[in-house]
Structures are given as C-alpha cells and as structure tokens.
Amino acid sequence: MEKLLGKTPSELKEIALSAGLPGFTGNQLAQWIYGKRVRTLAEMTNLSKAGRERLAESYEVGVALPLGKAVSSDGTSKYLFPVDGNPTNAVEAVMIPDGDRKTLCVSSQAGCKMGCKFCMTGRQGFHGSLSAADILSQFFGIDESAELTNTVFMGMGEPLDNWEEVKRTIEVLTAPWGFGWSPKRVTLSTIGVIPNLKRYLDECRCHLAVSLHNPFPEERLSLMPVEKAYPIESVIDLIRQYDFTGQRRVSFEYTMFAGFNDTPRHADALLRLLQGLECRVNLIRFHRIPDFPYGTSSQAAMEAFRDRLSRGGITATIRASRGEDILAACGLLAGLHNHE
C-alpha cells in the first residue's frame, strides 16, 4: 500500500487523476493530510465516497503511530516509532519543551553508517534510511503534534546520507501547502557529508549544525571515521562560501571528553579553525556509554573552555542536558523498546 504522506500537491494531483478524481482533488488531499492532519482517507469528507474507496485500493495516508513513550523528569518525551510498519526496526524521536518552545528531535535513519565511537546510534550499525512518510510520522504521531514550534534533524542517523527523503520532509514542513513553517524553525545536524552538504546549503534556507568534537584531524579521526572521507577543514572551507550573517545560522556541536578535547590547546585550535566565521559553538556534556575510554568533562573545564572561546571572539554556550534519565540525551538514542 503506497503512502500519501510526504507527497506534494502536484504528486497528489496525479494520484487523484489516476483514480478518476478531478485534478483539484490533489490540493484537497494536501489540505486534509497536512492542514487537518487526518490519518485515514475515510475522514476526507469532501471527497466522494466512491473516490475515497478507489484511492483506498492502492493508497493510505501512512501515518505510523508510536509504539511507546517515555517521559523524563524534566518534561522531555521520547517516542518509539516503527519503520515502514516494522516494529522490530524502530527509531526514536524526542520532544523537548522549553518555555513556549516545543522542539522535536527527529530521526532520519534506523541506525547510522557513520560509526562515531561515542554515539549509541552509531554503535548499533545501519538498518536503513527512512522514507519521508516515516520521518513525518514523528511529527504527526506524538501527543504534542499540534504544539510543535521547531525541529532539529539530530536524532538517529545522518540526515545528509538520506538527503532526498529529508529534503522532501523539509519541503512539507516549510511549504505553504504543508506546515507553513519558516525555515528558521528547522535545523539540520550533520557530521559533514560534503556533496550533500553543498546541496543542502544551495537548496535550503534552514539552519545548519555541524558535529565537530575535535579541531585536530588525527584526534577527530580516532572518534569519527568520517574525518578520513570528509575532513572537518574541508567542511568548514565549504561553509565559508555561504552567507551566515542573515537569518540562516551555523553552529558547531562539540561534545566534551575529559582530558581528550577540553584543554586550552583544543580551545585555541578551535578558535583558529573557525576564525572569521559567523557561528556559535554548543558545548555538550558527554553522557557515559559502555566500553568508551573517555569520561565527562567537569563543569569547571567546560566553563573555562567556553570562556576561552568567548574571549577569542566566538560565541559559545554550554547546552543544558535534557532527558538523560530516559536515554533521550545526545548520543543515547538506540531505538530500544524501553518505552511504556
């Protein structure tokens, strides 16, 4: 059964015509799916019953409901979603409340190919890329769906390794016929897959977050195999070709490991690497995982690192950790069935 979720009005028009419905039905379908967020064809009451029945022979809306939910003591919620209807191949999405903001941290792949050694998602291997319908189900299926204000493609998977489906999802989020969100409400996080990073920067106006974690190539390579294929210096050279002085922002994610990347030497190298680039550095507290040699940097070390960057002219913040008690914090998503 083919899914309508993730399709554009022009694609929905072709589907309607193939079912013997008038072309304007494509816009009606889009309004029902993205505007009213219905989950079944039967709810589309301004379509003829016969037309709905013909569509239902080959199509479904395609919203996958979560298999479970866990709620943190800080209000963060984590949802487990099946992939393409398969509950044994699941991904997690995290809803983070912060005052008036409700941000969804969304997954784009089941597992990940990138193999970062400090990330539980990377450790589980790669089990497939998500369709736009699977990604969008994370927006449609959660309890807070109607209240979401922002999203970050920062869950399971490397978004730029699944660029076509992620691009389709972003189109739904930002198009007038979709959610109608400003691109400023969307951030994509990547470790720097350069060919598709260029496409993202050319084709989207959304924010960018780059997983950096170490300014020294050989040290970064010891944690992140992607450094060999796409060196961080080359990633930053590409980013420098684009304008981030306006509404679009670039930030760098920097998980801090005690004694490994939290020294003044690292801060100074980071300043040299990012010199002259309009950006922000987010310092992230590391959440310990089994069989990993480095521990969590102390609060004092993180503050000293932040202050050294600030004195050097780069805005740096220590990101508040959310959802650690339900394994929803950075690097802990693994698609495990530990939800209610």
Summarize the structure.
By secondary structure, this protein is an alpha/beta fold.
Description:
The protein has 340 residues and is of the alpha/beta class. It has twelve helices and 14 strands. The chain has a ten-stranded mixed β-sheet with strand order 3-4-5-6-9-10-11-12-13-14, covered by helices on one side. Strands 1-2 form a two-stranded parallel ribbon. It is elongated and about 70 Å long.
Protein traits:
340 residues; alpha/beta; DNA polymerase, domain 1; TIM Barrel; two-stranded parallel sheet; 12 helices; 31% helix; 21% strand
Chain-wise SSE layout:
Blueprint: E1 2-3, H1 9-18, H2 25-35, H3 49-56, E2 59-60, E3 68-71, E4 77-83, E5 86-98, E6 101-105, E7 109-111, H4 120-123, E8 126-129, H5 132-140, E9 150-153, H6 163-174, E10 186-190, H7 194-203, E11 207-211, H8 217-223, H9 226-229, H10 232-239, E12 250-256, H11 264-274, E13 280-285, H12 299-311, E14 315-318
Parallel strand pairs: 1-2, 6-9, 9-10, 10-11, 11-12, 12-13, 13-14
Antiparallel strand pairs: 3-4, 4-5, 5-6, 7-8
Helix pairs in contact: 1-2, 5-6, 7-10, 11-12
Task: Please identify the structural class as seen in this structure.
Answer: alpha/beta
For CATH, the homologous superfamily of the largest domain is named as Aldolase class I
CATH architecture of the largest domain: Alpha-Beta Barrel
How many runs of DSSP E, i.e. beta strands? 14
H/E series? EHHHEEEEEEHEHEHEHEHHHEHEHE
Helix count, DSSP H or I runs of 4 or more residues:
12
Low-confidence segments, ≥5 residues, pLDDT <50?
none
CATH topology of the largest domain: the name is TIM Barrel
Distance between the termini: 29 Å
Helix content: 25-40%
Cα-based radius of gyration, to the nearest Å: 21 Å
In terms of DSSP E residues, the strand content is: 15-25%
Give the biggest beta sheet: 10 strands, mixed
Number of domains: 2
